[in-house]
């Protein structure tokens, strides 16, 4: 099983992702991550990006997961 990157937020969290190709990039909270894993509709921050780097910021506490689909390799950092 592939490890999904995540970070814990204490109120505000940002991620920067460097893509090799156009990709869907999502930052999703824990309850929506479970929906994503089971194939249900889920809410997310992000979207489809064709330019890099991608920066997404969220407000809220808890764990947020980074999903990158369709772009092959990527680099990321939470801050």
Topology, please?
Layout: E1 6-19, E2 23-29, H1 30-37, E3 45-49, E4 54-69, E5 74-78
Antiparallel strand pairs: 1-4, 1-5, 2-3, 2-4
Describe, in plain words, how this protein is organized in 3D:
The protein has 79 residues and is mostly beta strands. The chain has one helix and five strands. It has a five-stranded antiparallel β-sheet. The chain is globular, with a radius of gyration of 12 Å.
Instruction: List low-confidence stretches.
Output: none
Radius of gyration: 12 Å
Please state how the strands of the largest beta sheet are arranged side by side: 3-2-4-1-5
Report the strand count: 5
The amount of helix comes to 10-25%
Percentage beta strand:
over 45%
Distance between the termini: 26 Å
Mean pLDDT: 94
Order of helices and strands: EEHEEE
Which structural category do the helix and sheet elements fall into?
Answer: mainly beta
Q: Tell me, what's the shape?
A: globular
Count up the helices: 1
Biggest sheet record: 5 strands, antiparallel
